Amino acid sequence: MTFYRVASLSEVPPNAMKAFTISGREILVANINGNLYAIDNRCSHRKGDLSKGVIDGTTVTCPVHGSKFDLSSGKALSGPKFGPIKLKTSDLNSYKVKVEEGSIMVELPE
Ligand code: FES
């Protein structure tokens, strides 16, 4: 595992999120009240772009079918809903984040 520089801290201001492609992975970095989190950017249901979703606390909702994920752990909190039908979806990977000299660093496999 290696820490990769993802962006400057100013690129992800408080209560915002942004997707980055690092070392071949699409990662969502979220800044929730100054706490930084990184999870896979693509929804585990049908690869919805979570960076275009909605943040509510540490929960991000997929813009495609509404699955919810915990930004702090990558856990799937609820799956997609199609009318009265609720499905399950799997957890996402979450990654360690640190800030070094104003840069957001995310730990990824080499
Ligand atoms: S693609 Fe995200 S809920 Fe379907």
From TrEMBL:
The keyword Chaperone does not apply. This is Rieske domain-containing protein. Its cofactor is [2Fe-2S] cluster. InterPro entries: Rieske_2Fe-2S, Rieske_2Fe-2S_sf. The keyword Cell inner membrane does not apply. Keywords: 2Fe-2S, Iron, Iron-sulfur, Metal-binding. It holds the Pfam family Rieske. It comes from Methanosuratincola subterraneus. GO terms for molecular function: 2 iron, 2 sulfur cluster binding; metal ion binding. PANTHER family: FERREDOXIN-RELATED (PTHR21496), RIESKE DOMAIN-CONTAINING PROTEIN (PTHR21496:SF0). Residues 4-106 form the Rieske domain.
